[in-house]
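Format notes (please read before filing issues)

Several people have asked whether sequences and structure tokens are stored in separate files. They are not. Every record keeps both together, in the order shown below: the sequence lines, then the token lines. Line labels are part of the format and must not be stripped during preprocessing.
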Amino acid sequence: MCIIATLMVLTPLVMHSQSITVGAERVTDYAPLLAGKRVALLGNHTSMVGNRHTLDVMLDNGINVTTIFSPEHGFRGSADAGEHVSSSVDEATGIPIASLYDGKKRMPSAETMAEFDVIVTDLQDVGLRYYTYYVTMLRLMNVAAQYGKEFIVLDRPNPNGMYVDGPILDMKYKSGVGALPIPVVHGMTLGELALMIDGEGWLDGGRRLGNDLTVVICKGYTHQTRYELPVFPSPNLKSMLAIYLYPSTCYFEGTVVSLGRGTDHPFEIYGHPDMQGCSFSFTPQSIAGAKNPPLLGRKCYGRDLTGLDNEAVIAAGINLEYVIDAYNNLGLGDKFFTSFFDLLMGNGDVRRMIVEGKSAAEIKTTWSDDVEAFKARRRGYLLYAE
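Then the structure lines:
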């Protein structure tokens, strides 16, 4: 494996986005690696260098991009969560787009694999085990190893990279929202995670990319940097507060409660028509990025989290108090949950503990030892100061 740039050992103070150079900006470092090669780009609307798309930057620098791969939400990032996206052609360049989220296949065909020599990944992730961009990267790492292709990650900061929290995935719950034995909040960039995937032997059949894996690192980033995303990564993550709350409120996807899809504040509010004693209300509507949200058109009563302080949310880590509050309020027992809740949590224990009346703090202690063990295990793959 190769890491482009000398690792900058920086004091892990809180830093901000203005001082960061993302991997995609470092064209003079990665362009020589692609000279004379046919390139497949895994990217989407977050693959930006300033106000230009990484694809356009590559083409302007003579890089021969022959194939585009797109993850969940599509190449332009406008599809709903889980919505199937068909393969197509990029209108601006005429380059074919092979969707990896079309509901038919999750792996490129042999014919597609014959069209390129190297896969370049440039995606803005948010650092959650159930956020699917890393799963797409993992699939392409698998086929790269299978077909003997090179794999390059143009790294970007992880906006939730300042801590590690949550249970490690029990692999019997492996799914499209959980593919690796890592905590919910893993605290790694995609580049770091790619190194760990390869180093830990997590690719299919025990294959390794080895020297065929390269990470072009960010300059000026540490894991304590508060990175303000220049482009939000999916239609329902519309603010930095939503991204910081996402590790705590996404579990409502596996319940009968709305987390605000179909409003201006998804992941920042939650509610249900039958919640009691709540003065705050909202009504989910069909809007771009949430065409058919849960509880569409029904007035929901619940909680407004939009006034929370970002730093307080970060300090709390995964906070199950919101889910427990709604669970206790509705009094539905196990009918409060769907099976998707266990997939998001990565085990069946958390649901059981909530039903048993355990507090959020009590539940968090059950995974604390696993978190510390994971932090030690990942340390050799970190590219940025903690």
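For reference, the curators noted about this record: The chain has two domains: 2-231, 240-370. The chain has a mean pLDDT of 91.
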